[in-house]
Amino acid sequence: MNDKKREDVELLSISSGEASQPFDWSVGKHGSYFLQQLRDNKKIVGIKCPGCQRVYVPPRPVCGHCFKGLTLDDIIPVSDEGTIYVCTIVQFGFVDPSTGIQRPVPYTWAFVKLDGADTCLTHFLDSTDAEKVKVGARVKAVFEEKRTGNLMDIKHFAVL
Amino acid sequence: MSKIAIVGVGQTTCTRSKIDTFEEMVFEAASKALADAGAEIGDIDNVVTVSNDFWDGRTISSMAVQEAAGSWGKDVSTVEGDGTFGALYGMMRILSGSFDTTLVVSHMKGSESIMNLITNAMFDPIYQRGMGIDATSAAALQARSYMTMSGATEEDFARVSVKNHGNAKNNPYAQLPMKITVGDVMASRKIAEPLKLLDCSPIGDGAAAVVLSNKKGLKRFRKEPVWIKGVAHCSDSFTLGYRDLAKSRALKEAAQKAYKMAGIKKPLKDLDVAELYDAYSYMELMWYEGLGFAPEGKGYELIRENATGMKGELPVNPSGGVVSSHPVFVAGMVRLIEATLQVRGEAGKRQVKGAKTALAHGINGPCGQAHCVYVVGA
Amino acid sequence: MTDWKDKVENMVYSGRIKVPYLWNVGKTGSRFLIAIRDNKEIWGTRCPGCGRVYVPPVKTCGECFVPTTEWVKVSDTGVLESFTVVHYSYEMQPRKAPLAYGLIKLDGADGAILHLIGDTDFAKLKTGMKVKAVFAEERVGSIADIKHFTPA
Amino acid sequence: MGKRVAIVGYGQTYQRSSRKDVNGVELINEAVVTALADAELTIRDIDAIVIGNMDHFEGINYVDMWSAEGSGAVMKPVIKVCTGGTTGTTVAMCAYYHVASGMFNKVLAIGWEKNSESDTTGAIITAFHPVWERPTLGGAVAGLAIEASKYMHNYGATERDGARVAVRERLHALNNPYAHLHQEWMKGIPPEKLVDLIVGSEQNAMLAYPLRMSDMCPRTDGAAAVIFAAEGSAEKIAPVPAWVHATANRHNFVYAGDVDMDRNTTIAEASKAVFKKAGVKEPLKEIDVCELYLPYSYAGLKWIEDIGFCAYGEGPRLLWDGVTDMDGELPINPSGGVMSSNAIGATALIRVGEAALQVMGKAGPRQVKGGNVNLALATGFGGCYWGDVMLLGKKKPA
Q1: Which residue of B has its CA nearest to C10?
Q2: Structural domain harbouring D48
């Protein structure tokens, strides 16, 4: 220390350590019904705006295009099969902010447009084979054996 | 400067642990404000949403509610701060000449996380955060600094709490209407000395929205306009220990600017009603001083003389104030809404008779670091 | 009329945000923390404009908006300007409630430093009393190298 | 009606991978002091401040409050805005509206980020819905990769086309001492050859197909500050103020799965609004230089089509023809762009500041057209697929 110039001060940093913030986010009735259907019946539902006729997955309480409140009566079933709208194989490592640890890679992340829906569900695919996971490929939801009322009750979508 | 009018207001009730999602709350408040204005989303030229990422547990939280605020295809923006600051930005966007009308919506679900952790994160991570300081313990330090400077007592703080919780009984949107006594407050559980449970606001969930318009835009709306006659905001320094916690010089600065715009010379006389951001009971006394209702260090005289009670010279917080309902970031906008309702004569059981000129006040940061002051009138 | 809707649960998704941070103290702050760590000395910076001595130090005076130019050694004793005894607990607090915080204006400084108050009967705390820094045995280069302040 | 507004001063820190020598407040202060010096003003001349960043990138709540002593906000009006990647342009627009409203004469806009202090991808994921999106999302890289693959699918664009954008940005950055990435080895090598080297390089790791390391922006620590002033003052402060001719933004989707991956509709709609207001009919001909928020290479192909510089699918041709290089008809990102420096909250404000420098003729080694810039376009892109656009010009707008 002594023979270092004064300007040459050691540079410190402070770590946040294990600090985190817990949240209890309300899923809302619309989202809850979707998760309930996944859990109890292995079924996927969307919501159809009576104004613009768009079918949104997951269901939500407001149609942005029409600025219209959507009710549970607007919920309709959609297929558990669909097509890949877009996808990519994630290969770089990063910290999952929900756990504070690295998320395992590689994995394939896809926007799946289910038959009967106008928007996409974002989820995992079962394959990281670049030849198989392509725009337009057909996929089908694979459900977990034990389901808890969570988006991850769909384990992933399998490329058909 | 041409004037801007408030033509629509909407608020949800404030309760603990609402089941609604952020979107549902925003949609409710926005829809109510539009209905109040007699307008539809097509009458709105641009939208400003207000929220805070830490409280929502989501980065860019204010963008995530834009659909519920009717932003589709519109020019929009956001503010991270109290709703009063958001409304001010909404007003500037009209004054620029680019828009005639703005919808401003603010939301908060304080119940979804832990207040102490969220507000601990507003302190400097190098020197202060690790000690576990949070909004309430910092407020307690300020309360004591203020007592030392002013001679106000804990009983004076209690009087504020008694008045505001009592007023809340007349407000169907308030979270904690209560008939309590000074003794009840004094005997309530110690939180962070000198603050006790009944000196502290409850954590609440709620949303609020206002529709703003220039003269040209008025023909789109049914409601009689309430004009923003003066508005100003100002921030003090941040670091606890560098800032004089006992005195609200930033509020004084903001108030003087807003008064000048509105032509207010003697606020205690010229104003008919005031809605202040009393996150903790003692704050109301400090804000009296910053706002020029009382000389520095003498805020307690007003509460002892009941000058700010419903029948006093200047009723303060007829709604019950923030100590009775505290959706953070929404609470200031609710003050603006309450001031508007008073001027319209639509404040129901909490109406101050003949109110023509009202003051609304919002704060931001630890211990009321920043302030935003509005004077509204018919 | 349709009872299925009444049976829809109100689900709550319990999660958290846990992004790890490593905050840079910077040159000015590092020098302050190192002086405490290595020599149990407390230093501040003086603003050439208003003459205020800031502890912890600042690189720029917020009031005058000019860089501070001079390092000043201040005392490890000072006056308790304000304090609070906190009776609730949550996980960021470094010790069990009740715990006390103080704003301490060290002799030779103008701004007060926020810190814990310890090793004393909290009922006897008074504004204006003299307090003294107690240094931690093991010092690592953080503000916790001052363990707390205690009545002098 | 509102006041005319011009940019009269700009300051930025050197954009670097890590600034351990300063904390966040001190970093902000550097940019503010530089901007004030550039305009020859003091903090006393400033009437209000607007600041922006993303809370979870540094883990600081209420940043506008925390930074007051460094930003100059002590006893001043200050507002914070936070809109993801668009933060910098949203800050600039907010400052513009402050001045245009007539309520404030001179306003300081600040954007900053210290990405070195956290895991950037982790922090970005917190911008998405906790129930529907966070469990599977792979941050901005994955989000942009899917857009790129759709563009390639739709128009037959190749990895070489993407690399051509990256080459332009990195070559331009060599002229900008403030830029984070300085790939000196590229100096003097023709763009075609550089594309070959990049596409063929084994060290150029695949992050998420089709995006390799070379296609992405870096993680940067940096801050920027821009001073806006009202007509009457602006002309006195700056010899050549950069006038704001028009600005607009558009909001699009809230849920990620709703996004139209075929076109960037918000940047298209906002550009259209700006051009209409400013009377620009042929953007490619009339605009002299652009500072576009292009966070990854393929944006440099697709989004310039959305702005209206060429027809859909023709982005690659514009690139290969050299139209967007320093000496081309429409130089894009003489600063090196986002792909050469990305302190996220500062990034879009740097676009505005750099566009202003071009108009003011103060861009030094990265100045285009010999300083003869009449119109410069700046954009921002961010979370929820927002598009922000600001058009600056040398002539005072009508």
Answers
A1: B19
A2: 5-120+219-230
